[in-house]
């Protein structure tokens, strides 16, 4: 049981970081990015191909993170342009349809060109015992990196002027404009940041299990579930829900079976919506 | 300082304000009075860059700002306090004020000026804006607007939702700002308060300017007395 909970936390931290990117873009700009998982896969492939071309691991990871950020910028500059002319539900709907299109194109291309590709980063060193459970070095490094990224994210939003400016747009877009903040520039920044987060999740995930070309939609679905449970637009909510669902997922997979874990996650999400429609830490409008 | 020429603006169904002309000189306090739905809010939202103009010009110190978005206009030196305030409810008083100075870091002098003007805000520095009373929120909205060090402050019905005593206090604070040389443009339904503050005024009815004059002249005008000062 302890092993399951610890493994669940490892997975949950990644869920949380993944969902943070999705929830921020939605909270800030009413854009639901269904190509989010593909951003992570593209980053993973950039790391993989760089390492295949004999680039050392750390610079290769750097290139992957860069690719993640760039993919966010490209979305902002291309497919999302018509989305920005709409407001409210129409905006959410068009962003959802267009990014789903992007997801299919990217997924199709990668599966056609590199059907066998998968990124696995091996971290040296033997298992480390934590609470009597031997944990793989990969899991520990992955969790350390994820925790560091989360801490950086929270410091950015709580303690920097730019981070506060981003939050102000989530809280009151008109108020933000009145103090001189350009909501669209903040959204572009956050799209780039979400790409970086997707890349970090891809990299840390590959330290625990392979990230294959087909992983995109699965990552998006997980991020969506965590986002809904945590509350749309809430970063702390995403982090908390990520850890909770990670533990539920691991325990369900271990005691019931992997084939049911997605159903159990969806059930947990559905129950949350029934009991608390705005999510764990979401704010009801 | 501010010159509005032939401004028309509205929504898809048609213009709500038509061919408005008015001006505000440096150091003046100018009021725009009119009943609910007369077009004051649409007028202010369009000159401040939150709403698109159908036609007309808005000159601020000679520069046409009519097609600029609100986030650029505030950097030129005009701060707007909307009737709905649009504070950041889940941020502290302090954070709201800090963001008022965006993108610069707020200087202590301006923060101290705001705290001296509204001592309540100093007491509630760490409190979330959304949990404060209407009067305190109004103080914070004005305080946040001052953080940008504007040369012109534009207020849309600053007494909205305030009890008479708090409304009077709000206008006292505006009086202090006026004495410090800040130029003020205010739209108001509570005409007696606005009249004490302002040098001049315009009366807006059905989206057009119907009368203008010094506050003293308007206070003597029988129509104004009847419609806005409750004198039969």
- The number of domains of chain A: 1
Helix content of chain B: 25-40%
Average pLDDT reading of chain B = 93
Helix content of chain A: over 70%
**Which sequence of strands runs across the widest sheet of chain A?**
1-4
Profile the largest sheet of chain A.
Answer: 2 strands, antiparallel
Structural class of chain A: mainly alpha
Question: What is the beta-strand fraction of chain A?
Answer: under 5%
In CATH, the homologous superfamily of chain B goes by the name P-loop containing nucleotide triphosphate hydrolases
Name the structural class of chain B: alpha/beta
Instruction: Please count the beta strands of chain A (DSSP E, at least 2 residues each).
Output: 4
Mean pLDDT over the residues of chain A: 93
What is the CA-based Rg of chain A, rounded?
A: 18 Å
Level-1 CATH class name of chain A: Mainly Alpha
Rg over C-alpha atoms of chain B, rounded to the nearest angstrom? 17 Å
Helix count from the secondary structure assignment of chain A: 11
Number of structural units classed as domains of chain B: 1
Largest interface: A-B, 18 and 31 residues
Q: What is the H/E string of chain A?
A: HHHHEEEHHHHEHHH
Number of helices of chain B: 10
Characteristic terms for this protein:
heterodimer; A: 285 residues; mainly alpha; ABC transporter involved in vitamin B12 uptake, BtuC; two-stranded antiparallel ribbon; globular; B: 232 residues; alpha/beta; Rossmann fold; six-stranded mixed β-sheet; four-stranded antiparallel β-sheet; 10 strands; 38% helix; 28% strand
